[in-house]
């Protein structure tokens, strides 16, 4: 602030700025769910074209959950080919779908893609594993390290461990060998 400006002048300027900010038109908030539904629809169109090219049958379902669009493809016999071993093909297809959405909207997408129920089934198994290991660590007091997992898989295990009293989990290592370690609380 220049030396020749008085406290009263500064206060008057501050009040004028505050009034200007109050009088500014308020934009209507954009509904995040509407944007996520739009992402899901763009993804569904992209995936529908892919299924047509591959001549695969499948029904596409859209949902919004946890602040992200969820797109699921179910119903066709050949769909397991889009999952691959340990979900590698599914992860690649999800990233391609996210890029297609980004190209259309201009915004990075966090959509989650599931094919043939693979991710849902994997989530159930990993949640059970996390709970089982956490309960074992709580009773034995010995830490346990799990096999390396993807970030998606680690999050599911961390969430399951967090529900068990007396233990906590951490991630150790560098990708692709990053793993969850379950430890007793001190």
Automatic annotation (TrEMBL):
Residues 1-34, 167-186 are annotated as: Disordered. One of its GO terms (molecular function) is RNA binding. Pfam families: R3H. InterPro entries: Jag_KH, KH_dom-like_a/b, KhpB, R3H_dom, R3H_dom_sf, R3H_KhpB. Coiled coil: none annotated. Residues 13-24 have a biased composition (Low complexity). Residues 167-178 have a biased composition (Basic and acidic residues). SMART domains: R3H (SM00393). Residues 120-186 form the R3H domain. This is SpoIIIJ-associated protein. Residues 1-12 have a biased composition (Acidic residues).
């Amino acid at each position: 602030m220049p030396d020749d400006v008085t406290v009263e002048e500064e206060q008057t300027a501050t009040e004028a700025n505050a009034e200007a900010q109050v009088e500014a038109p308020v934009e209507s908030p954009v509904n995040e769910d509407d944007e996520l539904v739009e992402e899901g629809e763009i993804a569904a169109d992209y995936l529908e074209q892919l299924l047509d090219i591959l001549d695969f049958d499948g029904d596409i379902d859209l949902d919004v959950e946890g602040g992200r669009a969820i797109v699921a493809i179910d119903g066709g016999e050949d769909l397991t080919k889009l999952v691959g071993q340990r979900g590698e093909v599914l992860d690649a297809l999800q990233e391609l779908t996210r890029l297609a959405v980004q190209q259309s909207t201009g915004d990075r997408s966090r959509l989650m893609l599931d094919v043939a129920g693979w991710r849902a089934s994997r989530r159930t198994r990993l949640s059970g594993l996390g709970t089982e290991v956490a309960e074992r660590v709580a009773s034995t007091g010995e830490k346990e390290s799990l096999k390396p997992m993807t970030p998606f898989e680690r999050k599911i295990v961390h969430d399951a461990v967090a529900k068990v009293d007396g233990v906590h989990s951490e991630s150790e290592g560098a990708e692709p060998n990053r793993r969850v370690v379950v430890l007793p609380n001190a």
